[in-house]
Amino acid sequence: MSILEDEVYLKRAETLKDKVRQLISNQAKGTAVELLELVDDIQRLGMGYLFEGEIRAALDSIKDVKMEETDLHQTALRFRLFRQHGFKISQGEDIMDEAKAFARVHLKNAKGNVDSILARLVNHALDLPLNLGIVRLEARWYIDLYEKRKNANPIVLELAKLDYNMVQATHLNDAVDMTRWWNDLGLSKKLTFARDRLVESFLWSVGIQYEPQYKYCREGITKLIILITTIDDVYDVYSTYEEAKLFTEAVERWDINTLDELPDYMRICFFALYNTINQIAYNTLKEHGLNVLPYLKKTV
After folding, report:
1. Residue ranges of the Terpene synthase metal-binding domain (predicted)?
2. Domain containing 100 — which CATH number?
3. What mean pLDDT comes out for the span 93-109?
4. CA distance 64 to 41
5. Structural domains of the chain, count
6. pLDDT value at residue 22
7. Please, what sign has the CA dihedral across residues 166, 164, 83, 214?
8. Which one of 5, 10, 49, 135 is CB 3.0 to 4.6 Å from 211, fit for a cystine?
9. Taking the mean position of all CA atoms in its chain, how far away is CA 219?
10. How many Cα neighbours within 13 Å face the side chain of 128?
């Protein structure tokens, strides 16, 4: 039985969520820096999507705290979290570049003079800055680190592990669905010269939108990436200049009647692209009332 179907895990997850919500509420009555650190931990543990409303309300409660009343740690943390959540915050990208250079120099110098947990944070930040990382990979790394912290909250840690496994189970189900779709499409069997990059394409979609509720978004991204990869190989590996020109014209016209003008191996490729793009556009129009077809066509 999947963890997503086990009532024991589902009920435990809901209980833990309620406790963390209460923790955020209680912390909002304490110091600003403690609240910011809690929010940062929750987000880096990959659970920010579970508490969007609570985090927004918590940050809103301290938005008027004057910067001059805070230390450097709180100032930097406040700046990052407020900017991530769309609060009005001071601008100045040139200054941020200077701050980055300044921070890197002093972090490198500090590595040997801090405790092991902080040293791991410093090394991680130097190797892969937070804004350049993938949320799910960051969450997995941060869970291991958080568990070793002396002040780790056991409720937060338990929920982080449980939620991570539940999200992973969701992604596994998605991957199974995508594998079935790709096999049914049959492109990899017909176009044997093309790269079969389903797994890589799916991982990109998880990196872009990992939250469980965005299954359809991940499916659309996966389909687009793998189709674009296949078409890229059609152009670069197999087609002649004239064939590539015909295919380009067919895509630009977006007319199924152009199939007869294409060589056999390109027909199945164009048909797969045409049907997949139109199906995504149709589902989006039906569910959200938005016509995304012009934008999807531009991606290819």
Report:
1. 183-299
2. 1.50.10.130
3. 77
4. 22
5. 2
6. 96
7. negative
8. 49
9. 13
10. 10
Task: For residue 198, tell me if it sits in a domain.
Answer: yes
Q: Which of 117, 142, 160 is the last residue of a domain?
A: 160
**CA angle 113-98-101, nearest 5°?**
40
What pLDDT sits at residue 69?
A: 60
* Tally of CB atoms within 10 A around 249: 13
- Condensed to tens digits (0 to 9), the pLDDT of residues 252-266 reads 999 888 888 899 889
Same domain, 76 and 205: no
* 2 occurs within a structural domain: no
Residue partners of 184: CB distance under 8 A and separation at least 6: none
User: Binning pLDDT at 50, 70 and 90, where does residue 68 land?
Assistant: low
Contact 77, 33 (CB under 8 A): yes
81 contacts 48 by C-beta, under 8 angstroms: no
Q: Name 260's Cβ contacts closer than 8 Å, sequence gap at least 6.
A: none
Same domain, 229 and 151: no
Structure tokens at 22: 């209460």
Q: Are 114 and 191 in the same domain?
A: no
For 203, the domain range is: 186-299
Residue pair 214/259 in contact (Cβ under 8 Å)? The answer is no
Domain edge (last residue) among 113, 142, 160 = 160
Task: Give the pLDDT confidence score for residue 67 in this predicted structure.
Answer: 60
The CA-atom distances, in angstroms, between 200 and each of 227, 231, 266 are 12, 16, 23
Is residue 174 included in any domain, yes or no? no
Residue entry with tokens 């296949």:
230
Q: What is the pLDDT of residues 236-251, one digit of tens each?
A: 988 899 999 999 999 9
138/192 same-domain check? no
